[in-house]
Amino acid sequence: MKFGVATSSAMEALFSNPMRSLLTMLGIIIGVGSVMIMMSIGEGARAQIEAQISSVGTNMLTFNPGGMQRGGRNQGGGSGRPFSETDVAAVADLPFVEAATGVLNGQVTAVSEDANWLTNIQGGSADFFKVNNWKVTEGREFTAQEAQSGSAVVVIGLTTAKNLFPNGSALGQRIRVNSIPVEIIGLLESKGAAGGGGMGQDRDDTMIAPLSMVRNRVTGGNRWVARHVSRIQFLVQDGYDVMQAQDEASQMMRERRRIEPGQADNFMIFNFADMIKQRQAATETMSTLLAFTAAVSLIVGGVGVMNIMLVSVTERTREIGLRMAVGARGGDILIQFLVEAVALCTLGGLIGMAIGWIGIFGYAQVAKAPMVVSPVIIATALGAAASVGLIFGFFPARRAAQLDPIQALRYD
Amino acid sequence: MANEKAIISCRDLTKIYVMGDQEVRALDGVSLDIREGEFVAIMGPSGSGKSSLMNLIGALDRPTSGEMWINGSALSQMSRDDLADLRNETIGFVFQQFNLLARQDAFQNVRLPLRYARKDVGDIDARAKEVLELVGLGTRMDHRPMQLSGGQQQRVAIARALSNHPRILLADEPTGALDTKTTGEIMHLMQDLNKQGITVVVITHEPEVAHYASRQIHFRDGKIETDTANPATLEGKRAHGG
Known about the structure:
The complex is a heterodimer of chains A (412) and B (242).
Chain A: H1 3-16, H2 18-56, E1 60-65, E2 69-70, E3 73-74, E4 83-84, H3 85-93, E5 97-111, E6 116-124, H4 128-131, E7 136-139, H5 144-149, E8 153-156, H6 158-164, E9 174-177, E10 180-188, E11 193-194, E12 201-202, E13 206-210, H7 211-219, E14 228-229, E15 231-236, H8 242-256, E16 267-271, H9 272-315, H10 317-325, H11 330-367, H12 375-401, H13 405-410
Parallel strand pairs in A: 6-13, 8-10
Antiparallel strand pairs in A: 1-15, 1-16, 2-3, 4-14, 5-6, 5-9, 5-15, 7-10, 8-13, 9-10, 11-12
Chain B: E1 6-19, E2 22-35, E3 39-43, H1 50-57, E4 65-70, E5 73-74, H2 80-89, E6 91-94, H3 106-116, H4 124-134, H5 150-162, E7 168-172, H6 180-195, E8 199-203, H7 207-210, E9 215-220, E10 223-229
Parallel strand pairs in B: 3-8, 3-9, 6-7, 7-8
Antiparallel strand pairs in B: 1-2, 1-4, 4-5, 9-10
Helix pairs in contact in B: 3-4, 3-5, 4-5, 5-6
């Protein structure tokens, strides 16, 4: 096989009819672009999910009140009877629970001397930080005692701090939260945006305060439940099966809420792993769709390439005959046309990659998702394109190689 | 059997084409020996079988029956690849319509057989330059076929045929598309090459062209009609160059 002569002939053929080459490449361009975007979204989502797992951990379980029936209509999750701090204490007393916190949250307007900022406030016990894997970079967490007494202290997130104190440190400053003066005793480590797929939410735009302070000053009490909390979050000890813990905690909560056997729960318990799995499934569905698109356009593109290669072989029958007359073997001709098909597809692949790159960049901007273009993705995209050329170029190339020299030479 | 001294040897060659329900006997039992260094003109009216013979000698086609030897090797025993190598190493073709690659310049066209060569052919570019200078086109190497006259194109084709040091030069109506003056120049070039030892076989229907050959073979109805020496070989005036 003579690769040199095959390659130069192939390139020449490719560039002698650029418009036709470009149109032929279109399917490949779209296919490779889709492959790029698909893989990038998949890898981006995976990276993000991994980051979330490490930022929160998969051994955290959450109790939410269930939906409440009112006038035959379900009011949706969280509208049912809330939990109380005695429920939290009961959960914390479970042998497999490492730490537990009740949670109350609401929206507040925080006012500093320089600025005001609408943000959300989360009330919790001193274990709130541990359960949610929040780290304090400056200052300190509030203590159990402060949590107990409902001290007017807050630990604030990076975004909130920047907006309230654009020109200086927030630590130790006094601000007013819904008109209540509070002291900033700590700053939280940044956690970045939560979630992908366009529902990005800035997790640093928050503040954390003692639970009773939030109940007394922000959300107010509950008519039916004293010392209520809207959620209970708890960590399962390492080594204890999370599913097992979920079942046992659930059973205990049924008893506490006096639910008869056979009756449905009026609360929900879910774990972070489930949530991640759901999001992963959504991402995978999208990836599958894109993979399907990519496969279809690569096949359609391949058929286009095969078609144009057959035309090219027919057009150049005399040239093939001449090449054979001066000593080209069938294998030389085969390689020439295979190289042409592969080059056509690879070139299309490169253009498709450029377009895919733009698509990924755009997606990353819109969805605030991380942009991942790994060497594996590039290799896969180019490999797919080249393989299409090899597979769909083979039949035309073999037809050229099997031409009879004298008939090819006499063809017109 | 093959004639040991002949570089081209044919025995009882027949070639039958089937056209619709009709059989055409293009060659009908042709036996022929051509010795190394001969300059042979094959003549005859169209349809007499001379082109069919040329295609067989050139290993472009296979006979319906009969056997032929090039340089002592029986072609019927050779594979497609062997035949390709034979065309590359032993035979040089010149066609009536030149058959140059339109998108490549003279230099690239001449390099083609060398690039397909499987044996070491040395410096390809130097050899291509050498043969182009030999045919008087040293200054037009970067011209594409469209930029060259008919005579010049045929010179490129001859240079291409010569590039891999063939022992046989086969020319099928090489001057059919050329004017009289250019015809003289091309035939002269072939005579020179023949004097350097290359066996030349030319197909033509023009008696003037056949006069340059030392042996003339007439075909009619797929058979050899006459096979005569030509003592009065025409020595045309020297007219080299573009």
